[in-house]
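Input.
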Amino acid sequence: MNKNNNEYYIKKCFELAKKGEGYVSPNPLVGAVIVKNGKIISEGWHEKYGFLHAEASAIYNAKEDLTGSTLYCNLEPCCHTNKKTPPCVPLIIKSGIKRVVISNIDPNPEVNGKGIEQLRATGIEVEVGVSEEEGKFLNKFFFKFIKEKIPYVTLKVAQSTDGKITEEIGKRTQITGQQSQIFVHEQRSKYDAVFVGAGTVNIDNPSLDVRFTKGRNPLRIIIDGKLNANINSRIFEKEKERTWVITSLLNSSDKKDNFKKLGIKLLELPSDKNGVIDLKTVLKKLGEEEITSLFVEGGAQVFNQFYEENLFDEIIILKAPSIFPKGLNAFASLDEKKLKLIEVEKLGVDEKIVYFNSK
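Output.
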């Protein structure tokens, strides 16, 4: 089998894996393809957390004998039992598959090469590293979470051409066009949670759900040190069990009870006397809650705090063709040394600019 064929089938695995976006967390996105005599005879993907893994799904979906076939999967098959489903490696060995081609080694210490060793120990040929960088990008949430135990953080900024996120300070402003709105809703459906400050809740009164595309609504997290968010806001009306408020331990019981009576989950964390909570503490707590990805949507104070403390992985700027001289800047300043430009493209009337943190 030549390199191009390997890449072709691994890319098929990537396509299948993406079908699990938004549903498999904190597990990785994985797709699997089984090939025999140059023909795909079965496919599978990890559909939802707690469901069959991709390799097992492909094996069980097969309608013909797998003896002598090749299994392609974008992540190393699991070999441990510390999870909801049985390990895939024994199933692969038992199936008669003779060759396994993998994009990425699983960084989880419970796997991390052990699955490959077990396969090779039984005489199965294993090839690793096909389209490796693309595989890492696909599972950027999982890789970050496994290695650092905190979520992958993306700052999404809708701004005018002159860098403003509001027409006037304190005024709700719809900045971007329809194509950008659809894109944002698609992203929300893929991330574990969206994250905003209390000021954004009070000024914009957002729903932070998915309406313009298919997909599940994310968890909604509000950082509100002093519990100043308007309790009658839209964000507290629906899916209350999927709305969390991060707040200070210093707040009064009465304030806390107002939110708890609504069914809102409060994550109470240490703060300074002004109710300001350290974002590193926030990310650590969210990691403990198995939140692997965070889509940060404002406002300026939140954006700047993540940026200045270098606690972001990615920035997506949606730039509209408008100018707001009286508005509020998204960032005090952007240091190009901190950023690696990844993508620039048109989204309807707007421009999408994507940066990675160059740390």
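The first strand starts at residue 31 and ends at 36.
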